[in-house]
Design brief:
- The protein is built from 6 helices and 7 strands.
- It is α+β, with helices and mostly antiparallel strands and 163 residues long.
- It has one domain.
- Helix 4 packs across helix 5.
- The radius of gyration is 16 Å and the shape is globular.
- The N and C termini lie far apart (40 Å).
């Protein structure tokens, strides 16, 4: 049975330390600079509600939901740390609520997609992190992200330590 590490700070660095491959799915086509982030009409559900951009937000949420539903076909579970999985029915309201809450709020439940052996950590800024165990699954996930109308971003690489 797989054991799931709770990430504490830098996802990319910690994932590498545990032999995991990060794949970042985003509504944005590149990582936003601080200026772009600040100037964006919205970067979260709450921003969209406050700024009257809910219709556009819902289009993005629908794209993420399509992606997650496609991945869930091969089995999906809620991660109960450190090594229990609670199977979910992707057609059931419980799964729907977890996905909706995850897409709208910061760091709620984490999901495990059995077909890709992939873990999902929801983030709140229209950018969500998958962690894969097998390099050969990166291309499959990347295709599915793009087919959903979303983008794959390169994770930040840890800065080299100077000596």
């Amino acid at each position: 049975m797989a054991t799931f590490h709770r990430f504490e700070s830098d996802f990319s660095e910690e994932a590498g330390a545990h032999g995991l491959i990060p794949v970042i799915a985003s509504a944005f086509d590149h990582g936003l600079s601080e200026e772009e982030y600040t100037a964006a009409a919205f970067v979260s559900y709450s921003d969209a509600v406050r700024g009257n951009h809910l219709a556009r937000y819902m289009e993005i949420e629908a794209a993420f939901t399509r992606l997650l539903d496609a991945l869930a076909v091969d089995g999906v579970s809620r991660i109960q740390f450190p090594h229990r999985l609670q199977p979910l029915n992707p057609k059931a309201s419980r799964y729907r609520k977890i996905v909706q809450r995850g897409l709208r709020d910061l760091f709620t439940d984490e999901l495990y997609f059995h077909g890709l052996d992939a873990r999902l950590i929801f983030n709140w800024d229209l950018t969500h992190w998958f962690f894969l165990r097998r390099q050969e699954d990166v291309a499959t996930l990347t295709e599915r992200v793009k087919a959903s109308g979303l983008h794959v971003l390169e994770p930040r690489r840890p800065k080299a330590r100077s000596s």
